[in-house]
Amino acid sequence: MPEFDAKKVAEAHQHLHSHLPSESALRVKTLETLLEQKGLVNPATIDAWVEAYTEEIGPRRGAQVVARAWVDPAFKARLLEDAPAAIDEFGFLGKATAHLKVVENTDSVHNLVVCTLCSCYPFSILGIAPAWYKAAAYRSRAVRDPRGVLAEFGVEIGDEVEVRTWDSTAELRYLVLPQRPPATEDLDEEGLAALVTRNSMIGTDRDLGGSA
Amino acid sequence: MPEFDAKKVAEAHQHLHSHLPSESALRVKTLETLLEQKGLVNPATIDAWVEAYTEEIGPRRGAQVVARAWVDPAFKARLLEDAPAAIDEFGFLGKATAHLKVVENTDSVHNLVVCTLCSCYPFSILGIAPAWYKAAAYRSRAVRDPRGVLAEFGVEIGDEVEVRTWDSTAELRYLVLPQRPPATEDLDEEGLAALVTRNSMIGTDRDLGGSA
Amino acid sequence: MDGIHDLGGKQGYGPIDRTGEDEVFHEEWEGREWGIAQCARTPGITIDWWRHCRELILPEDYLARPYFDSWAQTDFSTYIEAGWMTYEEIAAGKSLRQDLDYGEPLEAMNLQQILDEDRAHAFRFDAEIDTPPAFVVGQQVSTQRHGHGGHTRLPQYARGRVGKIHAHHGAHVFPDWSAEGREVHQHLYSVVFDASELWPEAADRHDRVYLDLWEAYLLPVTT
Amino acid sequence: MDGIHDLGGKQGYGPIDRTGEDEVFHEEWEGREWGIAQCARTPGITIDWWRHCRELILPEDYLARPYFDSWAQTDFSTYIEAGWMTYEEIAAGKSLRQDLDYGEPLEAMNLQQILDEDRAHAFRFDAEIDTPPAFVVGQQVSTQRHGHGGHTRLPQYARGRVGKIHAHHGAHVFPDWSAEGREVHQHLYSVVFDASELWPEAADRHDRVYLDLWEAYLLPVTT
What we know:
The complex is a heterotetramer, with two copies of chain A and two copies of chain C. Chain A has helices at 6-19, 24-37, 43-56, 59-71, 73-81, 83-88, 123-126, 136-141, 146-152, 189-193, 198-202; strands spanning 100-104, 109-114, 162-167, 173-177. By secondary structure, chain A is mainly alpha-helical. Chain A has a domain at 58-202: Alpha-Beta Complex (Nitrile Hydratase, Chain A). The N and C termini of chain A lie far apart (59 Å). In chain A, 56% of the residues are buried. Chain C folds into two domains: 28-120, Cyclin A, domain 1, CATH 1.10.472; 140-220, SH3 type barrels. Chain C has eight helices and six strands, in the order H-H-H-H-H-H-E-E-E-H-E-H-E-E. In chain C, strands 1, 2, 3, 4, 5 and 6 form a six-stranded antiparallel beta sheet that branches. In chain C, helix 1 packs parallel to helix 4 (67-82) and helix 2 packs across helix 4. The chains are: A mainly alpha, C alpha+beta. Chains in contact: A-C, A-D, B-C, B-D, C-D. Chains B and D meet through helix 1, helix 2, helix 3, helix 8 and helix 9 of B and helix 1, helix 2, helix 4, helix 5 and helix 6 of D.
């Protein structure tokens, strides 16, 4: 059994820094090979996880939830009150969403989600996080310079709008509910879902292109 | 004239990260070549600076000062009162020593010098700083874990001894005055200077080997 | 720990690189590592211990190597720490001992099984505890000035600062201890801070930052 | 700035590597860079601006590359910023323009001249000012909680902490402004902090940390 010995782990990192091949692909290949030989992993199951998160589980799930909230006030109320139960109506409850919270954009509030300490993300509803979400530039700046970050994503936020950054420091995960774009009265739920971008549910996108 | 434009400098670092050769020797060669072609540096003068800091200016200077302080109480008093003037008695005043302060080890106090923010060092009296002094491990730990640092240097500090770490955050530079080892009564100033290690004047050495 | 991972508010990391942001995995090995992290048998570790092991990666590796590489590095370190792998095996690229029994052979799972499994990963970290919460919504609190020397979820930028309780989330597993193997539930709150409380350049900005903080990170403000 | 250079108290950097500690320069290029920094003509920069330019190096480069490499990188950035070098010239490895006049050709200096020159580098950074010092030796002070967003010499680990004035050193050039081109003298003090005030694990250690801090970094403690 592990003893949770941090000193031993720090030494392992130092050792591996010098003694593992520098190429990531080779390192991961070594890891998988060892795990398979020891009976600790079944490669076919890895295949299936990759397939699940490439084909099935991704931001289209979140987009469906957002579109439903736009057209169904009762669902929106449930979503804001108890997001895990609400997304479970779609069967989307899963990895890292048992403590999901939905935060709503309004004319006067814009929400932005980050994990400054690692890379927490609501997997079962948004899939794999984009690389920038997990990178130092975004993690360092989203709490300190959210307006600068948003500007880099092409989002200009007026002074009258309050920016709220949610730093995922516990097991709570945050999903931004973007505003329904104007002039979308004639779109059905599916049509609305198609307007919802992954970034709008993280908060690095704001005005969804419904009016075009 | 420069405008001290930090944004432009940050962009330069990003650009050079990708567009300069990764080998340090090549980079410095490029720098020297450009400077020489533009008339901004004379390579022979670089040679002379390297010679000065390899052959003439180094920790033997500091050791002479320490030995003098051990044998001459009046000099020691001047050194502790006004170190730049005192080292100037040897002609050692120079680069980064105009605001030198000397801090004295005693039976109950041990001093350790670091620069956590960059790599400040009293050049004209100790020469070029050792690589570890300028590295992240020493800079990060000397203020937080001085006893752990000292243990790695083979220096065990009793609980009764207070460790004082001096972080060189301004243009003041610090030189540790180590204790004169026991049983060195029959050594002259030159013999005593030979006992003084560079590390003892930074504070990563304490008990100088005089009794052997 | 005040490690390289504690990035909130740190400066100098430059613009955000959005290259390949619409690809799920940029290279095949990334998907393999992701999958390994989902389904490999592990030596009884907690999420907080795994996070701490990732925090302990050498800072230059943490910054310079690709994201999923840090997961592989973390996995290696946890298996080494537990004695399930050795440096010799990693260097050789193959298992050199068969004397440890990790249980029944693992059956291959198919896509539908994985979708069910993902559902089963909806772990809850909260529980009922007897202790009542020390703070109420709307109350002013200040954060501890010191972080825990090991794993902690009180980032440097939010230490020694005054905020307000925005919400109470019940009692959740306290990460500082969970990373040491002790599972103890403690009241968890969302705490909201004015940006101007956190950053020198935010004096005239009306933005706010919300963090989820455990009771042990918080102190009452006496006015 | 809260940059990668602000290393005091940061954790995870591992043991101290003393390789080659008795060599002055480990490789020839290190000596060349050292020499360049001593004698090359520079575009009217201050030591604080140069330090700030070094702080702005990408964090992964700052940590992973050899020490004197960071000096070369800093030099390049200052010459680029001043318009004395271009990216094209650096890529080409040669000067591509001769229209700028940097003054008389530089004569070669010999060893004795360098020893005299080193003596001439004993720069003083203090001056008499009219304002009397705000603090006296022995007085309790607390440090500002925020650092300057640009260059500053108040490290993160000593912000928002209570210490005591150990010594007054007169008025020295204030680095936060010097790095922006403004030379203003301000009272400078050595301030001593109990280790337990700075570090969670130092509660029962009687060690102390001394920092040299300018008056703008300090606040009186009202008891």
